[in-house]
Amino acid sequence: MPAIVLIGAQWGDEGKGKVTDLLGERVDYVVRYSGGNNAGHTVITPDGQKYALHLMPSGALSPSAMIIIGNGVVVDPKVLLEEIDGLAERGVDVSRLRISGDAHLIMPHHRALDRVVERYLGSSRIGTTGRGIGPAYGDKVARMGIRLQDLLDPGILRKKLELALREKNQLLFKVYNRKAIDVDETVEEYLRYAERLRPYIAETRVMLWDALDRGDTVLLEGAQATMLDMDHGTYPFVTSSNPTAGGACVGAGIPPTAITKVIAVSKAYTTRVGSGPFPTELFDDNGQHLRKVGHEYGTTTGRERRTGWFDAVVARYACRLNGVTDLVITKLDVLTGMPKVPICVGYEINGKRFDDMPMTQTEFHHATPVYEELDGWWEDITKARTEDELPENARRYIARIEELCGTKVSIVGVGPGREENVIRHPLLP
């Protein structure tokens, strides 16, 4: 089974890093194919060490897998080098990292514009992390981007930067009353990054093609999630890339025919960071309980996550859109002790019932969830490792999710640790 895609089925933060880490020892390559350091994966190792990863694929903690940052990622070199150094200090072998020369760079003007435009939008802001991801992707599409390979040619780097800043400095200085970016300082800074990143820059497409030809297992790891996809998410409250399964082919440079399995990760409830519609969002004690018990604070930003009940309409949409073969449900233990555990099975919009995602942004914004209530459970499930060890009501909850999504639930997370899972169906033979 050559290529496996791992995606989020909600608005991100579902626990994809844990699943990558779980599979890491059994795959040969782990590839990050979209997003930037606006994403974050938290991985807890068996000895209790916690790693917060932002640009590095979660497979970095695997003892042997090659780790690749694909062409679809936007890279802030300062952040990446800090992450490399932090992992090396903790004894993690980072020599296995390779970065596509076609990955685009986040530049100082991207970060500056991201922050000032969000402030300018006020109450209409998207809720970005302010790390320059959107402007970097915007320049990529506008064919004004600067790529990793440009770090290897100082002349091209300077020429491209001068061209970009001819426009960006006008915006920063004349429109937003901010300090212009200095070309010389920026070139000098980025050439320092080039010295350290040079050994990691490679033609990663050929590496992956050769690996697939050998029959190696390649795990493609998306950042963010389905409902934040630029084309298929809750636009405009989305990320600036395609974290869905189809984006894996574009962002890593592999053919669609190589993908044999798509694993989607979803929490046993729903969370979202930033602005945008969220039909099942809770503003009562239940929402506070989910946030507190589930430690729902962003890995990258530290922001409080918005919380709500499980939305089967969103999950089914994600399963169908991505061609999901296996669903992983995380954080089931967070629901322990709740008398009732509602599941959103549809929406009511202007008196009409919707069982699938409505077409328009307006309809989704006004969607009222239709709930089906299941009985909760009080037993501690963190020690469960087989389905039989779960309380009956917990099993019913998972079975109902499986039925509503039309996809088999293969793994159920019952705690944050790597081993705290119930395996219903093995993800790998």
TrEMBL record:
Leader sequence residues: none
What are the names of the required cofactors?
A: Mg(2+)
EC number per UniProt: 6.3.4.4
Q: Which residues bind GTP?
A: 12-18, 40-42, 305, 331-333, 413-415
Q: What is its main location?
A: cytoplasm
Q: In which pathway does it act?
A: Purine metabolism; AMP biosynthesis via de novo pathway; AMP from IMP: step 1/2
- What's the superkingdom here? Bacteria
Compartments where found: Cytoplasm
The cofactor binding remark recorded in the entry reads: Binds 1 Mg(2+) ion per subunit.
Positions that bind substrate: T299, T300, T301, G302, R303, E304, R305
Annotated active site: D13, H41, K140
Keyword field contains Magnesium? yes
Q: Which family does it belong to?
A: Belongs to the adenylosuccinate synthetase family.
Identification of the protein by name: Adenylosuccinate synthetase
